[in-house]
Amino acid sequence: MGSASNSKKEVIRLEREAVIPILKPRLIMTLANLIEHSSDRAEFLKLCKRVEYTIRAWYLLQFEDLMQLYSLFDPVQGARKLEQQNLSSQEIDVLEQNFLSYMFKVMEKSNFKICTNEEIDVAQSGQYLLNLPITVDESKIDKDLLKRYFAEHHHDNLPDFADKYVIFRRGIGLDKTTDYFIMEKVDMIISRLWGWIMRITRIEKLFSKKPSARVMNDQKKDDEITNDQYPDDMYVERVRIENLNISLRSLMSKITIQEPTFDRIIVVYRQASTKGEKERGIHVKHFKNIPMADMELVLPEKKNPSLTPMDWVKFLISAVVGLVAVVGSIETPQADFWVMFAILSAVVGYCAKIYFTFQANMVAYQSLITQSMYDKQLDSGKGTLLHLCDDVIQQEVKEVIISFFILMEQGKATLEDLDLQCEELIKEEFGATCNFDVDDAVHKLERMGIVARDSIGRYYCVGLKRANEIIGTTTEELVLKARQENGAS
């Protein structure tokens, strides 16, 4: 399989995520196998179960309130339930703000972050599989719900569209696509040829656009980004067709392009109200593995893409330039037919390139939209909230177990040392990296009563058997024991 070589390396710097990217069963069994004595191993496994049961109990009432509130704002059945409640408009406003408050707290606990303008600028600074300008039809989206929420709940670095919809993201992955990309290669060759003609004729100044100040201030050259400047960040390389050395020889060979992805994306918005009825439904949609450069796929209420104003300008200017060049060639005493033919061919070819590229991109867009609906969308509404609630529990259980294990094996430690040792354990045993949330983990261990601090502020844990005694037998264990006894009898 052939490949095109990189002519320019494009690297994106990303902050490390706080989420622990390890399945809980694998985490528990790996740590248990590191314990030497079988009796201690059994006590550790019992402690892990009791920790999970305890954390689930802590969140049970909060999650029930969240789900009950959402049942009133479910886009499918919420309107009927609101009618049954016979609430005033002001009371409904209070309830929907309470729901958003609960949901945003769960998002934070589940390590989801609101996409900022800077992150979206970086994500959309390149192209991957989607090559059409996608915009939101703002007339179809409510602008009051989120505006009122953020007016009462301050958040830093909110994006420009935060009054209409919010995009939460969590986790970083990598998507690779290997194909011939023949049309894209031809398009790139024509674009480069046309760019060369425009530079020679100095027409490119008509099309040059000044980058936004925000992007200019945030972007750095690849050789300026070093691990010394940002030691805790991760770096992902973008491999795009635009940055590859494409030639006629490599036109018929396969190439591999890659793009960093947002592992999980959740979009929250409300549709605009109609004249006859006020819309109360709140849409919560959950997506997975969305390439950063194609994140427009998750935008709500998208407009049908069309040729951009710049494309039409290029059409007109190309036609005018071609006409002027042909007329100028005819008026010369020695008009060369082949020169006129070459000029007309270049102009017609460029216009055809714009049109057929748009048509090909439309086909690709429809395919990507279908894929995002069936493959990329995990869930929506109540299903998404259930995912979030379980994510919170799983994440916090893993944080508590890792922190306790380190204190059990390494002895007393300061908060900073414990944080570092937890991250090293994750990297050494599982080959993963994360920005471990040690503060939250230690707080829960102290709340359970199995971790305390000495006189100089170092943390230490009680023994495994004593930890199980302090937490005590949980309701889940009693239920399981009763089932086993009934099954035996």
Report a brief summary of the structure.
The N terminus is likely disordered. The chain contains 15 helices and nine strands. With about 500 residues, the protein is of the alpha+beta class.
Describe it for me?
This is Aminopeptidase. The chain crosses the membrane at residues 312-331, 337-356. This protein has 15 helices and 9 strands. A hairpin with a 5-residue loop joins strand 8 (451-453) and strand 9 (459-461). By secondary structure, the protein is an alpha+beta fold. Helix 1 (24-33) packs parallel to helix 11 (382-410) and helix 7 packs across helix 10. The termini are far apart. The radius of gyration is 29 Å and the shape is globular. Mean pLDDT is 82; it is low at 1-6 and 209-226. It has a 5-stranded antiparallel beta sheet.
Which secondary-structure class do the elements indicate? alpha+beta
> Could you tell me the strand content as a percent range?
5-15%
The topology string of helices and strands comes to: EHHHHEHHEHHEEEHHEHHHEEHH
Task: Give the helix tally.
Answer: 15
Q: pLDDT average, as an integer?
A: 82
Task: Indicate the overall shape.
Answer: globular
How many angstroms does the end-to-end distance come to? 65 Å
The count of strands amounts to: 9
- What are the low-pLDDT stretches, counting only 5+ consecutive residues below 50? 1-6, 209-226
Q: State the strand order across the main sheet.
A: 2-3-5-6-7
The helix content is 40-55%
Largest sheet: 5 strands, antiparallel
Radius of gyration: 29 Å
